[in-house]
Structure formats: C-alpha cells, structure tokens
Amino acid sequence: MRGRHSVRRPRHLSALVALTSGLAVVLTGLVATNASSAPVTAFRPADPVRVLKGTTLAAGAATTVTLSDVPVGATAATLQVTASAGGTPTEVSVCAGTARSCTGTTLKTSTDELGTLTVSVPVTTADPRVTLVSTAAAKVYADLRGYTVDTSKASSPANSLYVPTEPRRVATATTLTDRGTTVVTLPSVPAGATAVELRLTSAAGATSTNVAACAAGASPSCSGTTALNPHAQRARQSSVVVPLGGSAGNQVQLFNLGGTATLDVDVDGFYVRASTNPTGGRLQESATAVAVPAKVLGPTGTTTLTLSPPSGATAVHLRVRATGAWRPSVVALCPGTSASTGCRATSLLTASPGAAAYGDAVVSLGGTGGKTVTLVNAGASTRIAPEVLGWVVAPAATGSGSATPTPTKTAAPTPTATPTPTATATPKPTTTPKPTTTPKPTATPTPTATPTTSAKPGATNTGVPAGTKLTVHEGDLRITEPGTVVDSLDVHGFVQVSAANVTIRNSVIRGYAVTQGRSLVIQDSPTGSLTIENSEVFAAAPSYWIDGVRGFNLTVRRTNIHDVIDSVRITGDNVRVESSWLHDNLHYDTAPDQKDGTHDDNIQIQKGSNIQVVGNTINGAYNAALMYSPGLGPISNTVVSGNWIDGGGCSVNIAEQGRGPAAGLVFKGNVFGRGTRVKDCAIIAPDTTAAVLSLSGNTYTDGKVVTVHKGS
C-alpha cells in the first residue's frame, strides 16, 4: 500500500537523560530466556583483556581457553573474537566448554581479510572454558569484554542493561598516530552508564596496525586487545562494547599499536546500571542465524526490512554482507522505515570492489508495530545479504521471533553482458490454497487515483492508495469472465487472467510458497487483456520461483512491484508499463535451473511488438533494469521514455540471440543512475543493434549524455 515505505516515527524506548530512542549496534552478551525457567540476567562490563593470543588453527581445528576470575552467578562471557583468514573465507564458532560443534553467532571473514565480532558464549564458575573452532586455516585472537550474570546470585552496582540511542557520529576523521593514545569524550552520556557500544570505521590508506578501545585511564594491558584492524586498501568497520572512564565517566581512549590510521566513531547505545534504569534490554541470540533474501541496494537508495520479532523485542541484532559495488560505498542501518540525518552519517559497513564487507549492529526496531529497520546506501549499487542474529528483549518478555523472508546466502557472481534468458516453468499451484472462480465486480469500487505524470514514481504515488480497506481473498484467482473488475482485494494467492478487458485495481497480490516457477499475475490468453493499476505485487514468501507480472495484452499502471525475481516479464505484443515503481528484486547465488545465480530483471522482454515503458522508476535488479532477450520471438517497436533507470550489470541489456538487430527500439528522455556493476553502463548492445537504435535526450543524473556500450 502507499505508505508501506513511507516515513514513520520509530517506536520510542525508555527515556534517557538528553537522549532519544532509536538504537543501533550493540554486540554484547546479554542473554534473555523464558521468564518461567531462566534467571533474570544483566551485563557486567569488564576492562578488556586478551584471553587468547594469536593462535593459528588449521581447517576444522579448535583451541580451548580457560577464563580466569569468572564472577559468581556468571551465565555467559562476552568475547571480542578476531580472525585473519588465509586463501579461503573462514567462519569461527565459539562453543561452551570443550565442545567442537555448537550453534550461535559465528565470526565470518573474507579471503585474506581480518574480521572481528563480539559474541556471547555460556560459561559458569564450575566450567569457565570456551572452545574456538575454525572452518578454514586462520589465526585467531580473543578478548574478554564482560559477563552476563544472574542478578539473583550476583548483586553488583555494575550490573547493567542495554539502552539504545539514535545512532550518531561522535568523532570524524580522527587521526591515530604511531603508538599514540587518543581520548574521545562522548556527549549526552546518561546517568548510571557503565559502558558504551561504539562503532569504529577506519578509512582506506591506513598502515596495517591494531587499534584497542578502552576506558579512559584503563590499565596498560587493555592496549594489547583488539577493537579494529585498519586496512591499507579499503575501509573497515567493527562494533565493540567499551567501559566508560574519565573523571566524569564519559570518555574512552583509542590506542594505536603502530603506523597511522584515520577513524570515525559512532555511538549506538549505552549500558546503564539496572538500578538506575531497570527497563533496558538483554540480547537474546538466535540458535542459528536467520538469513533475509539478498537484495540490490541501489545507488543512494534505501530498503526497509520487515521482520518478525518476539514479544517485547526493542531491537534486532543484524549482520549484513555486502558485495558487488564498483566503488567504495557506505551503508548505514537505521531504525524504522526512514533514516534521520544523524543516522545517515553513521556507517554499518563500506562495500568495496574485490572483497565482501561485513557489518553488524543491534538496531532499534521502528515503524508500525515495531518491526522494521532501514538500510541506506550513500554510494554505488551494492548487493546486501542480511542475517538476523538475535533480539534485544525487555526483561519481562520472552519469545524467539524470526525473520519473515526465506533464508539465502549470497556471493557476487560474475557479471555477464548478455545473459541467457531464464526458462519459464508451467505455472501450477503446489500448496494447499485452492483456485476459485471468477470474482464478481465489487459494487462500490474505490476511486482510482489521478496519475501524476511529472512526479517520480515511488512509495507515495504507486501501489494501493492510503486508506483503502482491503478484503482478504485466500487462494488463487482465475478470471474467465470478460469485463471483470477486481477492486480492493488482498489476494493471498496467484492471479491468472483468461478473459478480455479485465481490470485489477487498488489491490495487493502476494502469492504463497511454491516449489516451481510461477508469476503472481499472468495474462497469456490470445483473446485476453488486463489492466492492473494502483496495486502492489510482491512475494510474501520470497523465493527464486516467483516473478511479478507476466504476459502480453496488458497495462501496468501506478503499481508497486518488489521482492520478486523479474518484476515484469513480457512474452508478446501490446504491453504498456507506466508510472510504476519496479524495485528491490530478489537475487540468489544459485537456483535449480540457474547455477550461476538468478538473472533477475526489472523488465525482461522475450518477444513482442508495440511495447511502451513510460515514466517509471526502475532499479534494484542484479542483472538488468531492462533485458531484451528474444528467446521466444522477435522484438520490435518498443519505446522507453521518461523513466528513471538504474542498476544491473548494465541498466539496459540488448541481446540479439541469433535474430539480428531489433527494429524500432526507441530510448528518449530517460535519466540513468551510475549504480551499474559495469561502470557507466546505461545501455549495452551489439554493434548491429546499436547502429539502428533511436536515442534522444537520455542523460545520467549529472546531465552527461548516455552512450551505448558495445556488447556481443
């Protein structure tokens, strides 16, 4: 519905002195479990100390560490784990006792990269051992940052709960000198705060070094711990919990082991004494990471994730992997469905060419019902793969929510200039919903909104008009009666049209889980025709099996299509797509019929003539915004005019596939972004097709005239 991606105020958490709610990164070891069977716990920060010096592990090898001075009542230890991978990406698990296999949060590092992550692992005074296991050869380090304690057994003024704040930058471009100490004074520290959750970002160009983060005035031993390892070729990020020091309890210090580095410092929240603020939260880690489908985050674009948190959750612990950026691109993670100016200035990660980037944060939940977070891209198009690692839950709440979307892990496949079009499977329902007959036209249809031809299509002017009351329809719709009007339905199924002059308006089509290829809306009858307008089309159960709208003799107008593989797949004549928002396509590394990854496009034309694509916002696909692949027959007489287009390997990809140059391809007055994986590749076409294209008034966002890249 319109407003689905609109600005909403994030849900406020407990009040802090001079602070607003919101949240961001916290990577600590507060564990919340069912109140009926588990103790009431709190986090007790400790002066950082190294408990495992650099230890080289072979693939599958493990090392066990015995922690000293474990406090009475301890239920878990919070460790900052750092690993240096060799020639193979590495995952490091931290298990209780001497176990060599366990579930929970794992540190992930890319090839030839150093990675760091704060993890929580169960310990007790009776068994203070933890075991680190690596999937590939790596050098591993571990620092103790604090303990989770049973407050009924271990009363202490230091027992603290986490209270998130709106993410904000507190230090910019701070220079760390060789073996120098830099003190950072934090603004607006709440009364009773014992520690702060910091996010550190080092700029490219640093001398390889080690940065420690400690309380101001901490003992010299803290300088031997690790908060961040800057990199010479690219930016690096880490999140770390740091005790507060200084005379006013509002300072931390950064120690640089050698060389030079330039750091930005962000604050995500504070640990506050439970006696001062008893309404803070505890981090409840998931038994296993729950992946959210990978998406392409367009240049300077945003995407909102809607999650399924447990009751009482105030924040989500989210890790994001980013690949595919052709230039360094900063991504921020913010509460709710929009990002404040302050949060946009922070950094979850920096996607860089040639290496996967990881960033994680515990960020406040916002939006209606407190279920959403938003990723904001400040640079080039980037493919993101989020994972839910856990939840911050209020003391009295229980539950184990999960991410709504289907899991997926992604890695950047090699871009191809002219990919082979995907085969279209015969659509058949495979789940329990049963098809129904033609729906009757509604007696009082909702008025159709007046199109705004001059406004860029987006959240406020596409999809179901705000305030529309929808009626849920369970199962598929098969429309066989000419002139049928479907108005104001929420279709929990798929729609097949086999009649002339059918209209779907002011409706949502969301499908259900399937195990073979289907399109949410299809019109493939030679005598049929369909207009779909002011509607939303998306896969409620995302997978590589589901496309958006498919067919011919159809018009798509002011429609919001997202979270599918292909937004619109054209298989014949007489198609018009206008004033619509095609965005945030799903992408998967592998699929049953595509081992090199899904070839997701905003619009794929496989055959047809008299095709018009006018005044749309088209972005967020991995393969192409518009893919001309005449596998089903010739393509001719298509007009692409007045659109905002971005993303893909190249945004427009024209293939001949043995049919020779297409006739009558017109591109005029389109504005192209620069978020393509191939630099500045708005249009790519073979020489024979490029020679007959009609191009006029097509520019990049900076006004530079678009030219055609030569393909094969």
From TrEMBL:
Region annotation (Disordered) ranges: 398-468
Matching Pfam families: Beta_helix
UniProt biased composition (Pro residues): 430-444
Lineage top rank: taxon: Bacteria
InterPro entries, sorted: Beta_helix, Pectin_lyase_fold/virulence
Domain Right handed beta helix intervals: 498-659
SUPFAM superfamilies: Pectin lyase-like
Compositionally biased tracts (Low complexity): 398-429, 445-460
UniProt protein name: Right handed beta helix domain-containing protein
Originating organism: Cellulomonas chitinilytica
